């Protein structure tokens, strides 16, 4: 995650929030629609980003490799962020429903309950995981940890075991961010 974050210029915490929502950090997760792995990448999307079958394994099998999955999913997310500049909520909606669905909705979050819940969940997790400027300056006591997965996340999407109730432990960032890197404004949602 740290490598993908640096390479593609995506906040580490945003990648954590997306993966927690998509797969609950289960590298073997499979959605009912066929999305695979940590970032729930569709095989056709992976193929678009250069993942190809070979004699040793299929595209699907490769997407269960966390490095391939994160590399592919983060490149796709980076391209969606560039497609909808300054509108992270639209990039996330496009990650969930496809960029065409967002464009057909007039560059708004499509009127799909799953996509609306998805965007809300990822943005909520991102807000919890991304330290604010107050946290970075020592005015509050550390990072907030999520104990339960919010409604609308991976549990309701059919790609998590129904008996799972707690959110998996999220990996910690290696280095604390600098105060300059922690100032961000949460984008307005339509």
> What class do helices, strands and sheet pairing give?
mainly alpha
Helix content: 40-55%
Shape from CA axes? globular
Helix and strand string, N-terminal first?
Answer: HHHHHHHHHH
Can you count the helices?
10
List how many beta strands DSSP finds: 0
Radius of gyration (Å): 16 Å
Mean pLDDT equals 80
Low-confidence stretches: 133-153, 160-190
C-alpha end-to-end distance: 29 Å
| Largest β-sheet summary | none
The percent range for strand residues is under 5%
Q: What's this entry about, in short?
A:
The chain is mainly alpha-helical. It has 10 helices and no strands. The chain starts with a helix and ends in an 8-residue tail after the last helix.
Q: Could you walk me through the main structural features you see in this protein, from its secondary elements to its overall organization?
A:
It is a single chain. The chain is mainly α and 190 residues long. It starts with a helix and ends in an 8-residue tail after the last helix. The protein has helices at residues 2-8, 12-23, 43-48, 59-63, 66-83, 88-97, 99-104, 113-129, 133-136, 179-182.
């Amino acid at each position: 995650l740290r490598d993908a974050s640096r390479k593609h210029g995506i906040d580490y915490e945003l990648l954590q929030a997306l993966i927690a929502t998509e797969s609950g950090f289960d590298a073997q997760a499979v959605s009912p629609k066929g999305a695979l792995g940590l970032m729930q990448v569709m095989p056709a999307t992976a193929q678009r980003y250069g993942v190809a079958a070979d004699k040793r394994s299929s595209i699907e099998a490769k997407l269960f490799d966390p490095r391939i999955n994160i590399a592919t999913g983060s490149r796709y997310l980076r391209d969606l962020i560039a497609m909808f500049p300054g509108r992270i909520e639209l990039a996330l909606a496009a990650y969930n429903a496809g960029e065409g669905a967002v464009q057909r909705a007039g560059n708004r979050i499509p009127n799909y309950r799953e996509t609306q819940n998805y965007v809300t969940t990822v943005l909520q997790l991102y807000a919890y995981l991304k330290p604010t400027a107050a946290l970075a300056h020592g005015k509050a006591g550390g990072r907030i940890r999520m104990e339960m997965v919010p409604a609308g996340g991976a549990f309701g999407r059919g790609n998590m075991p129904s008996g799972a109730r707690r959110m998996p432990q999220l990996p910690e960032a290696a280095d604390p961010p600098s105060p300059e890197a922690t100032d961000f404004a949460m984008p307005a949602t339509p």
